[in-house]
Amino acid sequence: MKRIVVGVVWFVILYFGILGAGGAILGSLAGSTQKNTHKGYQAGYTAGEEFGKNYGTFILFAALGGAALGTMTGTLPGTRAKRK
User: Fold this and answer.
1) 65 in a domain, yes or no?
2) What is the pTM (predicted TM-score) of this model?
């Protein structure tokens, strides 16, 4: 039971981590092209939002698959089977 809970926690970490990192990278790249701070913020926000809309479903399934595979094989921290 503990492995399942830790696997779900890893799914949430992977999903929001990848989504947040991708949005932050694309947002900072888009925002850095603007001279005005407000326009840069708006461009970065829009780019990050578009990243989530375009790739959110793919990232959802990638995180789900990665967490499931990592939990089943015991490669993610906290998911290794106890020795008997």
Assistant:
1) yes
2) 0.84
d(CA 4, CA 15): 16
The answer to the question of residue 37 being in a domain is: yes
Say if CB 31 and CB 41 are below 8 A apart.
Answer: yes
Number of domains, the chain: 1
Nearest Cα to 52, choosing from 26, 13, 14, 79? 26
Which pLDDT tens digit goes with each residue over 29-69?
Answer: 998 888 888 999 999 999 999 999 999 999 999 999 999 99
Q: Is residue 5 part of a domain?
A: no
Largest CA distance in the chain: 63
